[in-house]
């Protein structure tokens, strides 16, 4: 792998791929126009989505390598580093990339919604694998953006371009929902591992030494990004990952409360709470009674 190539502007990335810059803040990049190259890591100062058409090297994203095939979408947010490892061999890029700068969407409804598109924070091995019909829909969205970019920029251009980006991202949410369903057997295994991870954590001395189990820590133990893990738990249980963890903590707390030899403060510390009042507040919120009231009732 070479040193990191830095792309802060859309025009820089267009030039790298022999594409014309028709708009300073957005481009639908035809990667087949790029010269043959060897693998390299790249820093992006903007949003970029890759649609791979053929296998041409392994995607390197953070510390992970992922062999992604035809019809795969990979979403990368501003400030992230990705690249291709071609194992020293020259390859010819093929496929498309949608690149758009955050400045393009400032002041639009899309800017307010970007946090909904959590897949920009997924790991590469959590990429979106498209069916042929889904791939055609993506290409149709790209085509509509290109149509606007080929026209002279007028007062309608930004609204229509941003609307098509938003449409594409909304389709991507639907496609990811489909992927969660079609890979349900895989994700059930993840949920089982998550359940065991929480049980082992809460039954050990880790709560006293490390504290409450964090969503990010659990995701890391399961080799998932925090965003993908959170979305998976939400789709499988209807709860956020944080809510699910809190449910398990409260279940454990209920068992401990039956031990009359322990004070409520002791139980709070054993569960990983730094301050007993935080435990009491969470318990009251989730159970409807304070820990002491619950103990007296039972």
UniProtKB/TrEMBL annotation:
Keyword NADP: no
Superkingdom, taxonomy of origin: Bacteria
GO molecular function: DNA-binding transcription factor activity; sequence-specific DNA binding
Matches recorded under Pfam families: HTH_18 (PF12833)
Protein name: Transcriptional regulator, AraC family
SMART domains reported for this sequence: HTH_ARAC
Keyword Magnesium annotated: no
InterPro entries: Homeodomain-like_sf, HTH_AraC, Tscrpt_reg_AraC-type_HTH
Ranges for domain HTH araC/xylS-type: 192-297
PANTHER family attached to this UniProt entry: ARAC-FAMILY TRANSCRIPTIONAL REGULATOR, TRANSCRIPTIONAL REGULATORY PROTEIN
Keywords, comma-separated and alphabetical: DNA-binding, Transcription, Transcription regulation
């Amino acid at each position: 792998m070479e040193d990191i190539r830095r792309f802060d502007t859309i025009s820089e990335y267009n030039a790298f791929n022999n594409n014309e810059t028709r708009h300073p803040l957005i481009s639908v990049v035809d990667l087949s126009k790029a010269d043959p190259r060897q693998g390299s890591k790249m820093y992006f100062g903007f949003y970029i989505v890759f649609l791979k058409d053929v296998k041409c090297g392994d995607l390197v994203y953070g510390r992970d390598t992922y062999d992604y095939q035809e019809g795969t979408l990979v979403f990368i947010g501003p400030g992230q580093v990705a690249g291709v490892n071609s194992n020293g061999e020259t390859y010819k890029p093929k496929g498309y990339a949608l690149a758009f700068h955050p400045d393009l969407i400032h002041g639009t409804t899309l800017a307010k919604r970007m946090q909904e598109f959590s897949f920009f924070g997924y790991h590469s091995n959590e990429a979106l694998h498209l069916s042929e019909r889904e791939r055609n829909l993506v290409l149709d969205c790209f085509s509509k953006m290109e149509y606007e970019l080929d026209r002279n920029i007028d007062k309608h251009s930004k609204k229509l371009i941003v609307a098509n980006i938003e449409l594409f991202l909304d389709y991507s949410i639907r496609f990811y929902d489909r992927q969660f369903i079609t890979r349900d057997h895989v994700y059930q295994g993840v949920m089982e591992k998550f359940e065991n991870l929480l049980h082992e954590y809460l039954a050990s001395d880790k709560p006293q030494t490390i504290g409450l189990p964090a969503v990010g820590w659990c995701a890391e133990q399961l080799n998932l990004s925090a965003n993908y893990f959170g979305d998976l738990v939400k789709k499988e249980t209807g709860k956020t990952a944080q809510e699910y963890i809190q449910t398990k903590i409260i279940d454990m707390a209920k068992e401990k409360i039956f031990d009359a030899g322990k004070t409520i403060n002791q139980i709070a510390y054993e569960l990983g709470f730094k301050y007993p009042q935080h435990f009491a507040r969470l318990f009251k919120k989730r159970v409807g009674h304070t820990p002491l009231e619950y103990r007296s009732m039972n």
